[in-house]
User: Fold this.
Amino acid sequence: MCRGCLEVRRFRYYAVLSFSQNGKVFRPWIPLRLDSRQKTKTLAENFLQRLASNWWVGDDEHNDLLIASLGLSKKAKLHLNRTEKFELFPKAPSPRILLADYLYWWAERVKARLAETTISGYKGILRRYLVPYFRERRKTLGELTTQDVDSLIYVLLNKKKISPATVIRVRTLLYSAMKYAEKEGIVNRNVVALADRPKPDPHHFSVYDPDELRQLITRFKGDDLFIPVLLAASLGLRREEVLGLRWRNVSFKENYIAIESTVVECDQDGKMRVIAKEGMKTKSSWRRLPMPETLRNTLEAEKRRLAPNRDERLCKRSDGSDTTPGFVSSHFPILLKRLGLPLIRFHDLRHSLATAMRAKGTDMSLIQHWLGHSLITTTESIYAHFDARMLKPALENVNQILGLERGQEFKE
Assistant:
């Protein structure tokens, strides 16, 4: 997406787009083949709007297809009747369309019902993995086979060394696109459904024990990340939940924090942008959590010091700007290394709290609600990790079963 305006040269309309890429400003002129002396301004404005709203900065192949689909290129294979109301890729393509072009067509069709962050992730997968692979092989939509999908997965896993989790997302996206083609009657069946799904890597996370968490919080005091770290370690919040908190979400009277908005960062038009989202993705993610005493005392002191209005973010940097997701992810490991603390991810603070809560005997359903999971199986399989220290009581039980005391040898 970019900005644009209409220009007239020699009685011909041009769509002039404007966007920045790699620190440079570009203003391509696209001839619309419309005579300005005739009643064509409304149609020219319509062309401009379609070009500006569907332009993908940095993706020349998509943009060439966009221009062609609007009938504005001499080499266009798709033409539109300009006397009719048009839309980008107005009809379902035939099975003979290149699969790479179909994937762009599908992304345009479904983006209206998807969140900005979701479509941004889709576009990233298309640009990096699916479109280059299938365009190089000139594979058409109707020619795609299960073997082709298996080959794609093999290349990504074994030659490009892409992680299984990412390859699973690639396969899932291709499955969704082909399912849409099957529903529209473009293909007879979804061949991706028969392709092998990569096995995900087992979850391996580094966690802090309670002593390390307390040390972390103490040593982060005075840093721009102190409040985000305290919130994540005390409440087990996700990064986007931490940064989405406003002072209106904090109730000192009833001692709770309401989790009801997020702040995320995604790639839009080749540039990382911060997006604030009101509301949560799932019902279970919306929750009210009681504040531990340390967190409450800290926030009360911050409120007295800053006197913020209720709509301001809790997480601010020393210069007064809002803390961004990118700053958290980049600054957190740097500070850990500087302080000589074990290196973990910011998200691992969430795992650390879940593990510590389980070690203390907290009911799993309570941990599920605390973390905001829809399914308790998610809590059990991913977040509440077993720690070697948690097995000590089991060791004592085994000794008792075998009739052994500490330091005692087994006798026949």
